[in-house]
Design a protein that fits this description.
Structural class of chain A: alpha/beta
Keywords (chain A): ATP-binding, Nucleotide-binding, Transport
Domain ABC transporter (chain A): 8-242
Number of strands of chain A: 10
Strand content of chain B: under 5%
Strand content of chain A: 15-25%
CATH topology of the domain at 144-358 in chain B: MetI-like fold
Helix content of chain A: 25-40%
Number of strands of chain B: 1
Largest interface: A-B, 31 and 24 residues
CATH architecture of the domain at 144-358 in chain B: Orthogonal Bundle
Largest sheet of chain B: none
Family (chain A): Belongs to the ABC transporter superfamily.
Number of helices of chain B: 15
Shape of chain A: globular
Order of helices and strands of chain A: EEEHEEHEHHHEHEHEEHH
Strand order of the largest sheet of chain A: 6-7-8-3-9-10
Distance between the termini of chain A: 45 Å
Number of helices of chain A: 9
Pfam families (chain A): ABC_tran
Organism (chain A): Fuscibacter oryzae
Order of helices and strands of chain B: HHHHHHHHHHHHHEHH
CATH class of the domain at 144-358 in chain B: Mainly Alpha
Oligomer: heterodimer
């Protein structure tokens, strides 16, 4: 891991599902500490792209580097990257057979080789940070959706990653719970975490993002700072998308 | 009016509504009650009220009382429990049974579910069982596996078959869902082949055909070959049960584990298998119960397990008439073990569901 290298560097990324090309020559660089929001219509490849960054999807050609480490078929390099890149999913994917605390300490103990005491102390610290310190001994099924998603964020933070990927973190939530998750994400952003968020929460994008990326049909169509992106979008498809999503 | 009569009124009303709601259902209720009472009385009358319990009762005396002749059990219980194991040494077989039961109960306790604790229980338990049964150490007279029998043999077959079969099942189930198509396909064919053979033919093949195919050093005693055959059979079915469990787990679970950097074995052992076992538990208990029953099939390759021992117990002239009593006794033994198993399964299910709601 090179400290001075860009956090994420994607060059000419292509991904096929059979004959369908999901990603068409994507190139993207994310600097350390930068917050990037990725939006676009469904099926535009935005989830596929961020899932390539921690290799939940294998890409077919192109290079992905995380802090200078090239992701290839080498399992060791994939494991190394996954330790540094946390991910938060649309459907939380908490482990239902473990308590909240166990969800948060499992990977630090097994992967980072932390002692149980250290791992639990850190888990309680991050549970406090996502504002659910008193739920540590409950099972995920006993929590609301918003609480589960905040546990999922704490679980990712417990690995102390350099980068956090968010894959539509609020899409599966009831409207009244979206704010509590976005608040936590905003706090993280102000702490200097490198973040790539696939989301349709344009308010969050405007407030937090350093850069907004619009994807359509497997390509990056527009890339700009939030002010320019929302007020003077260049591309027709971006304008159409924004009018649809902001229009009501 | 106090609360108590009100409550019992409600209960009476419910009974009336549920069991005597209409003329038809009332009639059905009465007929069923009559049957239950009739059969219950007949059994009670036969087994206890008119039964003979003295060890010395002859057939004529039993007939005179008109009920069950439990004398056959009093006289022949050692044959039923220990088969053709040498008479003087049967205390060893009795202790060996107790060892298996204790070993099983210990490994069913959640406190023991640590690798080293289970390994210790199983290592020591199996060694104790073997030394007791086989002899040859500590001045115990050697007893050939061919002479093991009765309950001790049934328990040994059951426990070893399930304990060897379960890891094999996990291995097969994991290979079946491998990312490498060749491994997945070949494993699928192996599982399907085993499942399309009757257990009898597998036992025959392992007991009788295998020695012709493999060198002597690899085959071992017929008893162990039969156990391997039974374990393989168990594994094929249990692998499919586990596959059903795997399919019930959302893809997101493994993805979340990958995203946290957990390597394959940790993903499987900490995330996938615990959830798969929970989903597969009812069917797994079912399969284990079936395995217990199927131990009786080893009689075809010449082993005198519980049921076969029971057959020999009444098949000498004087007790030929008392086969019902012998089978009732054996059924009671099977029942107590299998009923215990299924209660344990129910306990496990409620334990695993505690505090967990489906997402």
């Amino acid at each position: 891991m090179q400290v001075n290298a860009p956090a994420i560097e994607i060059r000419d990324l292509n991904k096929f599902y059979g004959t369908f090309q999901a990603l068409k020559g994507i190139s993207l660089t994310v600097k350390k500490g930068e917050k990037v929001v990725v939006c676009g219509p469904s099926g535009s490849g935005k989830s596929t792209m961020i899932r390539c960054i921690n290799q939940l999807e294998e890409h077919d050609s192109g290079d992905i580097r995380v802090f200078g480490t090239l992701l290839n078929d080498n399992v060791a390099s994939i494991d190394e990257i996954r330790r540094e890149v946390g991910m938060v999913f649309q459907h939380f994917n908490l482990f239902p057979h473990m308590t909240v605390l166990e969800n948060c300490t499992l990977a630090p103990i097994l992967v980072r080789k932390s002692s149980r005491a250290d791992a639990e102390a850190r888990a309680r610290h991050f549970l406090e940070k996502v504002r659910i310190p008193d739920q540590a001994d409950k099972f995920p099924g006993q929590l609301s959706g918003g609480q589960q998603q905040r546990v999922a964020i704490a679980r990712a933070l417990c690995m102390q990653p350099e980068i956090l990927l968010f894959d539509e973190p609020t899409s599966a939530l009831d409207p009244e719970m979206i704010a509590e998750v976005l608040d936590v994400m905003t706090t993280l952003a102000s702490d200097g975490m490198t973040m790539v968020c696939v989301t349709h929460e344009m308010g969050f994008a405007r407030k937090v993002a350093d850069r907004v990326i619009f994807m359509d049909k497997g390509e990056i169509v527009e890339e700009a700072d939030p002010e320019t992106f929302f007020t003077q979008p260049v591309n027709d498809r971006t304008r159409l998308f924004l009018s649809q999503i902001l229009g009501h | 009016m106090t609360a108590q009569p009100y409550l019992s009124n409600r209960r009476l009303q419910r009974i009336r509504a549920e069991y005597f709601g209409s003329a038809g259902s009332g009639l059905l209720t009465l007929i069923s009650l009559g049957l239950i009472i009739g059969i219950g009385w007949a059994v009670l009358n036969w087994a206890l009220l008119r039964g003979s319990f003295t060890a010395t009762a002859t057939q004529a005396e039993c007939m005179a009382k008109g009920g069950a002749c439990w004398s056959v059990i009093a006289v022949r219980w050692r044959v039923i429990l220990f088969g053709i194991y040498p008479y003087e040494e049967q205390w060893r077989s009795a202790i060996a049974c107790a060892v298996v039961v204790v070993m099983t109960i210990l490994s069913c306790l959640p406190v023991m579910w640590r690798f080293w604790r289970l390994a210790a229980v199983w290592g020591l338990g199996t060694a104790a069982f073997y030394i007791l049964m086989r002899g040859g150490y500590f001045g115990l007279i050697p007893v050939d596996e061919q002479q093991w029998g009765g309950l001790a043999l049934t328990l040994f077959l059951f426990v070893t078959t399930s304990v060897l079969g379960m890891p094999m099942a996990i291995g097969l189930a994991l290979m079946r869902r491998s990312d490498l198509p060749v491994i997945a396909r070949v494993t699928g064919i192996i599982i399907d082949t085993i499942r399309s053979l009757p257990l009898l033919s597998i036992l025959f093949a392992f007991a009788i055909v295998l020695p012709f195919v493999l060198p002597d050093a690899l085959t071992g005693d017929k008893l162990y070959r039969v156990i391997w055959g039974g374990a393989l059979f168990f594994a094929a079915y249990e692998a499919e049960i586990l596959r059903g469990g795997f399919q019930g787990i959302s893809k997101g679970q493994e993805e979340a584990a990958k995203a946290l950097g957990l390597p394959y074995w940790h993903r499987i052992s900490r995330i996938v298998l615990p959830q798969a076992f929970r989903l597969a538990l009812p069917a797994t208990i079912n399969q284990i119960v079936i395995t217990f029953m199927e131990t009786s099939l080893v009689v075809v390759v010449g082993f005198v397990e519980l049921l076969a021992a029971g057959n020999t117990a009444y098949q000498t002239g004087e007790w030929k008439f008392a086969y019902v009593e012998v089978y009732a006794f054996i059924s009671l033994i099977y029942f107590s073990f299998v009923f215990g198993l299924s209660r344990y399964g129910a306990y496990l299910e409620s334990r695993m569901n505690a505090g967990q709601r489906k997402e």
